[in-house]
Design a protein that fits this description.
Layout (H helix, E strand, L loop, with lengths): L2 E3 L6 H11 L4 E3 L6 E7 L5 E7 L2 E6 L2 H12 L7 E4 L4 E7 L8 H14 L3 E5 L21 H13 L3 E5 L7 H4 L19 H15 L6 E3 L12 H6 L4 H18 L3 E5 L1 H6 L15 H5 L6 E5 L6 H12 L6 E5 L10 H18 L3 E6 L13 H11 L6 H12 L3 H7 L14 H7 L6 H9 L4 H16 L8 H26 L3 H33 L5 H26 L7 H4 L12 H5 L6
Helix pairs in contact: 3-4, 6-8, 11-12, 12-13, 13-14, 18-19, 19-20, 20-21
Amino acid sequence: MRLYWEAEGIPEELVDGLRALGEEFPISEGPQEGARRIRFEKWEQVGALEVRPEGEEVRVLYDRPPRAFRAVGRLLAQETPEALREDMPFRTFGVMIDCSRNAVPLVGHLKRWMRRLALMGYDMMMLYMEDTYEVPGEPFFGYLRGRYSQGELGEIDEYAHRLGIEAIPCIQTLGHLEQILRWPPYRDVKDTASVLLAGDEKTYELLKRMIKAASGPFRSRRIHIGMDEAHDLGRGRYLDKFGFKRNFDIFNEHLNRVLEICRRFGLRPMIWSDMYFRMGSKTGDYYDPESVIPPEVISEIPQGVQLVYWDYYHREEEFYREWIRRHRRLGGIPIMASGIWTWHKLWYDHTITSATVAPCLSACRKEGVEEVFFTLWGDDGAECERDSALAGLLCAADLAYGGGDNVKALASRFSALCGGDYQAHIKASEIEHPPGAEEEAGFAKALLWDDPLLGIFARHIEAHSGVFLGQLAAHYRALAQELSRSKKGAGDIHHIALAVQVIADKVLLRERLVAAYRRGDRAALRETAEVDIPALQEEVRKLWESHRRIWLFQNKPFGFEVLTVRYGGLILRLEEVRSRIEEYVVGKRKFIEELEEPAEALSWVNVGYRNLATSSAIL
């Protein structure tokens, strides 16, 4: 449906947002032929919106701009306006975009995303920036990493404000700082490779500059200061300088010092909560039911900081409810961080996301959680086609607003708001879940980067998944053919179809190579070397070209060198495999040594690239 609005009678808080949406979507200022007029009226029903068709016009009742813009999104997907009411149970409903795992989104790309987020009804966006933001006087912050300038962050905040979205910086003030601590100027504030030296005055002088720089460009006085997964806190230079101290005490003391800095800048901070539970667990597990946080530690958790309970894994509503209650016992209602699964993925994983988001949101409603956001991580290189995750964000928004999982309605809105085929996006998610295989985090990525001779992941899946490589190849080939017939959409379907084809042929190469070698079939090995490997090398090159095009459309160029090395390494490694086969076939080598290794298989494989490409050290 095409819509138009007129400035007269429109609440001022919507004007800039409607103009921003009109940059891309069919909602214009002033009458347009074939467009229906939309009016907006503010009301006092918190979290609610209503759409009321009235003759040739449509009236929208809303409490805050995000609800008004969601109503616009609903109308854009309809041929004729339909009456509807929706209720948002959460005071904050947002997303967190990873800007640190190599992919730093272009400002224009974030604006494009914000238009879609607004039309879905989101009202908050965090930017996760470990070091990818400019800190005046600290030239190594984001050095060669595509950091955001102060001006860029201000531009992002301004555009978010137009659309009723609160933009919040999310940084790190304890761990996850290996990218900055690698540089010599920071040796004095370094505890371990990734953790700051708590208790040292130089650390807090640096933190003042970091927090001021990260928060300065934003209107919001909220800031996420991280402090998660600092597993070796106090075990490096801290131990040498200050001696042994209980990690609980180091953590609380450091948190108090960081909060002092936040108060100085008028900020209201939040932190990830996992360290308290991990430090109370004998196994270091965040979700350990036996974890004990001593009462004196709880009493010393400083006031004025919100805890963020992150959980992307559990599928039982009762688990979320229990952990929300445990957080309450630490003081206050937590913020909930669920996940739209993009990490260790080539494409958004709809299966895991759906299985975890629905029970999480249900538990949050029942436990009175007021703030929820969804993380989109980019662990180990940010290989996932980010736009594919828009399907998951749309689905999560409908669940939160009470719309359920109506596939037909979702497909219509996805087409209108994201320009994509919803069902094709969900179909592409099957790249992660081939029939019969055990659920793995990063199945497709593991197959893409698994070394063709070592076969670390190939050995694992054949031993533990009950699926043969030939079956996998057949599944992926059929999926590639189906996806190649799909229309382009929000995420690049043709790109993932090409990736699926590469995986299919690479898996088949491994199967043929091992089988031919075991039966001593030199003719088959020669065909593999002369036909299969050159064809696969060309496919990998095309996949790299496709990935490069997408990356440079969405992100700053920094970080893509990592993927270039991976693609280039795979192409050259295939050249090495070809040479080794040829040497074996003509008798220059008695064996292909990697294929002589016994078929040991790990029960679990970390799907990080370095764990798939080699068993040797990477310098």
